[in-house]
Specification:
Length: 382
Amino acid sequence: MNSERLRLGTFTAASFGVLGVHVPFWPAWLAHRGMSEVQIGLLGMAYMCARGAASPLWAHFVDRSGHRRRWLVAFTCTSLLAFAPFPLASGFPSLLAVTLAFALVNAPVLPLGENLLVLQARERGFDYGSTRLWGSIAFLLASWGAGWVLDGGGPDRTWWLVMGLLALSAASTLRLPADPPKPRRAPQLFPLGTLFRDRRVLALLVGGGIVQAAHAMYYLFSTLHWERAGLSTATIGALWAEAVIAETIFFALARRVNERWSERTLMLSAVIAGAVRWSVLASTTDVTAIALVQWLHAFTFAAAHLAVIRRLQHVVPVQLSASAQSLYGALNIGAHALVISAITGLYASHGALAYWPMIAVACVGGAWAMWGMGSAVARRSS
């Protein structure tokens, strides 16, 4: 592996390691701080909305400047500082304030990191999926390891784990490879406007975001639901890790998948897998059944994500790439926020039945995304 891929892989691993602790275990930390299910849902929705609004706006300036690495250093370091005050926050208003501050500065980190990875893969001729899987492996190890750590020490340790991984993410940006050469053409004056004017690209990005938002119930409430069903923290961490093992295997095979499956086939597989996965999770807390459908994360998440990324690589020029990547992330986040707002009350009153609407969410998003894949949506240029 060349040094550029190693440095990109290290940053990807550190950034997704943060998610591996934050996504499955942060709701339990909030519950430990006295937040109710409705308050946890509101904090989750606020977090998603702030990220969704901030990410494409930051990306506008990144595309204008062309300096992705420089911006990533700033965002990761600021994220570390913004997350630090959480233990000092007591009560819903102060937790909301810190949540919003962290979301606003952390929002662009993953989309800009993936954008840099995509551009480097295009420039240097290596496979995107084989480097992106470092993030999946890190998520796996972080969620599995955190499950064991928290099982013995309680939710208080969650903050320390996230802080440590944020510090690693910030340090890894200092070793990222230089940005690819700038395109010969001048940067777009308003990159987002160009994307919004194309119905196909907008449908692709919106639909892809909605498909990912079908995971909202799983991401926000599955840990709490399984804890109340009597599963240990270590078991829950293992279930989260299993899903990411499936995702990792899929990305490791991405080159072969790309040779055999079209973007539409990938998206269709995600919708079908979602119908199976969410119906099982709505119906049972049996560990064996959950463990079986966790393998479908390879399709509900990874196949859908790869379909959108592949299409963007083919049709979006470099000078729009950060905006497109961040807009996809923002629409993903915005869709998550809308779904969370719809299911929070449903979960509070009916528990796992809130998984059933996720099937409809996946179907709507998949149909929209597949329509957006119908033709070239932006002219490639270099």
